[in-house]
Specification:
Largest sheet: 5 strands, mixed
CATH topology of the largest domain: Glutaredoxin
Number of strands: 12
CATH architecture of the largest domain: 3-Layer(aba) Sandwich
Shape: globular
Radius of gyration: 21 Å
Order of helices and strands: HEEEHHEHEEEHEEHEHEE
CATH class of the largest domain: Alpha Beta
Structural class: alpha+beta
């Protein structure tokens, strides 16, 4: 009896495990609507948004895929690729994506989903990424979003309940904020948008203490010793 209990606890623990921010994104090979992929090897040098949805032919997921597909060129412009996943079959994916093309919602119509949608019937990839959460469902993935950088590191993790569609402008904003932070060795303030001023790291960190103390130019301004901004350039 004790052995069965230990086995069940171990199974639950394994099922619920998920990679964390700053860790390597778990590698996998998968069959998708765009052919086989090997991740992250096939996406070296690219930012990636890996996201899961509960099921094909469901209303919230349909609006999300229409939105993601309509924004694919916007993401490509910032060196970002999209990869979807659910535990449905490849045949279900293909039929659903064909149906999506027939729908009109808001200003979106004739939407063709050209990014890969992973078949994950055995939930192997979903379990690797902690996308199966028993409190929500044992048979469907939650709405997870993993933003992965060009080095294959996880930089952001977002989770949404089954009932709530994602904010895709925010997902894009996060990618751009991460790119800006990497490029300029800075941080971004609340509600940052491209073109806004950025935050200079706190004195003593990231080798900028001297810069903060000696910068007499108009490029930097401080609200207090711990909160300094650099004007957008």
């Amino acid at each position: 009896m004790k052995e069965n209990e230990d086995f069940n606890n171990q199974t639950i623990s394994t099922r619920n495990q998920m990679p964390l921010i700053g860790e390597d994104a778990p590698a996998f090979e998968a069959v998708t609507t765009q052919g086989p992929i090997s991740f992250p090897a096939d996406y070296k040098g690219k930012w990636v948004i890996l996201f899961s949805h509960p099921a094909d032919f469901t209303p919230v997921c349909t609006t999300e895929f229409m939105t993601f597909a309509s924004m694919q060129k916007d993401f490509s412009a910032i060196n970002t690729e999209l990869i979807g996943l659910s535990v449905d079959s490849l045949y279900s994916h293909i039929a659903w994506l064909r149906k999506i093309k027939e729908l009109t919602w808001k200003d979106m119509k004739n939407i063709e989903v050209e990014f890969p949608l992973i078949e994950d019937i055995r939930m192997e990839i979903a379990n690797k990424y902690g996308m199966i959460q028993p409190g929500a469902s044992n048979t469907q993935a939650v709405r997870a979003v993993f933003i992965i950088d060009p080095k294959g590191k996880i930089r952001t993790i977002l989770y949404y309940p089954l009932t709530t569609g994602r904010n895709f402008d925010e997902i894009k904003r996060i990618v751009m904020a991460l790119q800006k932070a990497d490029e300029a060795a800075c941080a971004t303030p609340a509600d940052w948008r491209p073109g806004d001023d950025v935050i200079v790291p706190t004195a003593g960190s990231c080798g900028v203490a001297k810069e903060r103390m000696e910068d007499k130019s108009d490029e930097m301004y401080c609200l207090d010793w711990f909160l300094c901004f650099k004007k957008n350039q």
